[in-house]
Amino acid sequence: MLQFLNVQNSPVDESSLLKAVQSVHSLIDKELAAGIDPKNVFLCGFSQGGALTLASVLLYPKTLGGGAVFSGWVPFNSSSIIERITPEAKRTPILWSHGIADGTVLFEAGQAGPPFLQHVGMNCEFKAYPGLAHSLNSQELQHLESWIKSRLQSSS
Which ranges in 1-156 belong to alpha helices (H)? Predict the structure, then answer.
């Protein structure tokens, strides 16, 4: 497993993050080569996986169906990475969910995501969950299901 930081105490290792992003992009490329419509590709991740989801969506050169970040954060602040976000990637919708009681990835870190995305020209739906710590709940998963279903492209 690729790890680019220790959630408890450290800055992002940008080179490790970019290696992890390349691995995700390789998986997406295999699906597209198999004939999957990119708008039917959804990346979802929790915690560090949420941060990786966000970085992978932002740095992928095509518009995807969506990216869902659960209890995640923006994993970089480098202008060189921000400059690599293509107009196509900016059209990928983002769902961001975060528990207000999260003591591992603080709620404030999650709240910083939508303004960052707006700054780079992307749309983001943010959902806060009162009482939810660093975990997922059935409400989040039900919302994710309906969010994805509303964006799936017909194969006809």
Answer: 14-33, 48-59, 79-82, 107-111, 113-120, 138-149
Active site residues: 47, 102, 134
Cut 0.85: pTM above it: yes
**SS3 letters for 19-50?**
HHHHHHHHHHHHHHHCCCCHHHCEEEEECHHH
Sequence letter at residue 90? K
pLDDT number for residue 14: 82
**Crossing angle for the helix pair 48-59 and 14-33, to the nearest 10 degrees:** 60
Question: Is the Cα dihedral 150, 151, 155, 156 positive or negative?
Answer: positive
Q: d(Cα 69, Cα 45) in Å, to the nearest integer? A: 5
| Exposed e or buried b per residue across 32-61, where buried means at least 16 C-beta atoms within 10 angstroms of its C-beta | eeeeeebbbbbbbbbbbbbbbbbbbbbbbe
Q: Tokens 């790890």 — which residue? A: 3
pLDDT of residue 12: 63
How many Å from the N-terminal Cα to the C-terminal Cα in the chain?
A: 37
